[in-house]
Amino acid sequence: MLELTSENACFGGVQKSYTHHSEEIGLPMRFSVFLPPQAQEGNVPALFCLAGLTCTEETFMIKAGAQRIAAQQGLMLIAPDTSPRDAKLPGEADSWDFGVGAGFYLDATEAPWNKHYRMYSYVLELYDLIVRKFPVLPYGIGITGHSMGGHGALVLALRNPALFKTVSAFAPICAPSQCPWGVKAFSAYLGSEKESWQQYDASALMEQRHAPFPSGILIDQGLSDKFLLDQLFPQAFEAACKKAQQPLELRRHADYDHGYYFISTFVEEHIRFHHRNLGGIAR
C-alpha cells in the first residue's frame, strides 16, 4: 500500500513522495516521483534516478534541477532511497560509505545484511510498482545515477536491458571490485569470494556483452573530482565498452568536481538523451 507523504506543485507538474512496505527489503521504504504535466493526459516515458553515498530519495529531486526540463520533455522521474532504514543492524550507521545510505544497489548474501540489504531487487520491485500504479509507458523507461548510483544504474541496465531501454551516469563507480569503496562494501555484503562480485561490476559485466545499448551510453565525469583516480575508474568501463563494441559517449570536463553543481550543469543533456532514445518527441 502506498502512502503519500508530500505533494508539491512543480513546473506545471507535481513532485510527490511516498512510503510503502517493500517485500524485498522487509521494511518500509521511501521513494519520490516527479509527474510532468503531460502525465495528466496519458502515459509518459520515465527515468529512474539513483543517488549516491549518504543520499536519500530526496537528494536528486532537490539538488539536480531536473524537473524543469523533465516537465518540458514530458518525462517522469523516479528516485528511490539508497538503502534500507531502521534495519537496526549492528554497525550499519558507523561509517558514511557502508550501511545506511550505502546499499550499493546489490543483494547482500552475507549475514546479517542479507535480510534487508537487497537494493538491487528493490529497484526492480519499485519498477514493477511504478508500472502498475503510475501513468508510465511500460516500454519507455530508462535509468541514470550518480557515483554509487551511477554504478547501480549501469549494473541494473546491463543485467536488465529489456526493462531499462536507456542508461546514463554522472561520475559512476565503474569498477567497484577494484576500488576501496567497492571492496569494503562487497566484502561485507557479498563475502570474500570475489567471483560473486563480478555480477555487480559494470566493467566486468560489459566485457561479457555485445553492444547491449545500440543507441549509446552517456557518462559525464569531472576532471577535478577528488574521487576520480582512486574510486571511479571510468577508463575501465571505457575499455570494456570498446571490447563489447558498445557506443559510449564519455565526456570529461575540466574544473568540475563530484557534487551536484556538476550534475545540475549537465542534467538537461541527460534528460534529453533519455527522452530522445525512449521514443519521445524532442523539444
Description:
It is globular, with a radius of gyration of 17 Å. 32% of the residues lie in helices and 23% in strands. It is of the alpha/beta class. The protein starts with a strand and ends in a 6-residue tail after the last helix. The model has no long low-confidence stretch (mean pLDDT 97). It has a nine-stranded mixed β-sheet with strand order 1-2-3-5-4-6-7-8-9, sandwiched between helices. The longest helix is centred in the C-terminal third of the chain and has 18 residues, at 260-277.
Biggest β-sheet: strands ordered side by side in the sheet: 1-2-3-5-4-6-7-8-9
Helix percent band: 25-40%
This entry's quaternary arrangement is: single chain
Number of helices: 9
**Unreliable spans:** none
| Structural class category | alpha/beta
Large-scale geometry: globular
**Helix and strand sequence:** EEEEHHEHEHEHHEHHEH
| Largest sheet report | 9 strands, mixed
Q: Total number of β-strand segments?
A: 9
Short description:
The chain has 283 residues and is of the alpha/beta class.
What would the keywords be for this entry?
9-stranded mixed sheet; alpha/beta; 9 strands
Question: Would you spell out the secondary-structure blueprint of this structure?
Answer:
Layout: E1 3-10, E2 13-21, E3 28-35, E4 44-50, H1 59-63, H2 67-73, E5 76-80, H3 119-133, E6 136-145, H4 148-159, E7 166-170, H5 180-190, H6 202-207, E8 217-222, H7 228-232, H8 234-244, E9 248-253, H9 260-277
Parallel strand pairs: 4-5, 4-6, 6-7, 7-8, 8-9
Antiparallel strand pairs: 1-2, 2-3, 3-5
